[in-house]
Amino acid sequence: MDMKKRITLELRSRNPAEIAELVVDNSRSADGEVEGLTDEFTELEFLSMVNVGLNSLAKLPSLPKLRKLELSDNNLSGSLETLSEKCPNLTYLNLSGNKIKELSNVEALQNLKSLQSLDLFNCEITSLEDYRESVFELLPQVTYLDGFDQEDNEAPDSEAEDEDEDGEDGAGPTGDYDEEDDEEEDEDGSEGGEEDDEDEEDYAEEEEEEEDQAGVQGQKRKRDVEDEGEEDDDDEDD
């Protein structure tokens, strides 16, 4: 499917100004140029054009709110100066798998003052000696290159951060729930204690009753023995 038709489908009869995210991965661009995108996409913040056969960004429209741009697995080797002109607020740019060979190819990104993360995986430039040091020196505004900063600390995963935030939000109810459980356990424990006391009292009463019965039986046996003795005396008298 060509890129223009794909964009039309993605719009789903919506106005381009309503679109904040647009993904046209694996579609086909005519003559290696961007097509179907216009200046009407004024609210676009995320654009993904992975593996669409791009050779140039010359026809990229003005996207003033665009912050994340995915351009991996294309045939780009230059024309990157267009990005600073059309997408001045980019913070994340993925150019992995393109035909970027020299530092001069990325020099045009110096004007992207907000750029924080740049990916150049699988580009020939990564084989240059002191590649990372050179890129960080050339683009001082960049914090993460190929997913790591200058001290080799990995870039945080935005999805993971969202999950952590959700976890923190959920911690409150979970904590309250645990406290309620503890209270219920305490109540159950106190009730259990009362029941145990009652059981002990009942047991003590049963023991007393058994002792009383044993005493009565003992007295009865004693009387029986005495009575037998009296009967024996009477027999002897006879």
Strand content: 5-15%
Termini separation: 133 Å
Strand order of the largest sheet: 1-2-3-4-5-6
Could you describe the largest sheet, including whether it forms a barrel? 6 strands, parallel
Structural class: alpha/beta
SSE topology string = HEEEHEHEHEH
Number of strands: 6
Provide a compact summary of the structure.
The protein is of the alpha/beta class and 238 residues long. Helix content is 45%, strand content 7%.
Describe this structure in words.
The protein has helices at about 5-10, 80-85, 105, 130-140, 160-235; strands spanning about 20-25, 45-50, 70, 90-95, 115-120, 145. Strands 1-2-3-4-5-6 form a six-stranded parallel sheet, covered by helices on one side. The model is unreliable at about 160-185 and about 190-195 (pLDDT under 50). The chain is built from five helices and six strands; from the N terminus they run αβββαβαβαβα. With about 240 residues, the protein is α/β, with parallel strands linked by helices. The N and C termini lie far apart (about 135 Å).
Structural topology:
Blueprint: H1 3-11, E1 21-23, E2 46-48, E3 68-70, H2 81-86, E4 92-94, H3 103-106, E5 117-119, H4 131-138, E6 144-145, H5 158-237
Parallel strand pairs: 1-2, 2-3, 3-4, 4-5, 5-6
